[in-house]
Structure to design on (134 residues):
């Protein structure tokens, strides 16, 4: 997916603030699901959210205001109560990797307790991962 660094995401030097990357990764996850016919909003309407339990980011190169970025997002692990994603963020013009990240998520219900991912979602996510692996 293509992103553009917005002015509000930069510091005084015009370099994207590290917190913007976290937002971009969230956009990548939500769009990854949407592209596979799984709207995250529908999961939440079923009473389940995917809470971030861990996020690791390795910042490699600065990106600046108005740079175009290519964000590659992949689901790399799936369990009945959670999942994990990997991310690679590249500067579209130079091809340089700006950041790599991984996030781990736990399915929770509205009161914050851990829960199982609904069976229909789990099956569709398994198929999506299998399709990408082949």
């Amino acid at each position: 997916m293509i992103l553009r660094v917005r002015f509000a995401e930069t510091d005084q030097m015009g370099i994207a603030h590290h917190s913007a990357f976290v937002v971009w990764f969230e956009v990548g996850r939500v769009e990854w699901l949407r592209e596979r016919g799984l709207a995250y909003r529908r999961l939440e309407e079923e009473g389940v959210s995917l809470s971030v339990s861990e996020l690791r980011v390795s910042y490699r190169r600065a990106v600046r205001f108005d740079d175009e970025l290519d964000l590659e997002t992949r689901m790399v692990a799936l369990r009945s109560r959670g999942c994990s994603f990997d991310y690679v963020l590249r500067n579209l013009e130079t091809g340089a990797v700006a950041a790599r990240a991984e996030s781990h998520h736990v399915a929770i219900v509205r009161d914050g307790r851990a829960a199982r991912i609904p069976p229909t979602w789990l099956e569709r996510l398994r198929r999506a991962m299998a399709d990408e692996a082949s």
User: Anything to note?
Assistant: The chain has one domain: 2-133. The longest helix spans residues 18-35.
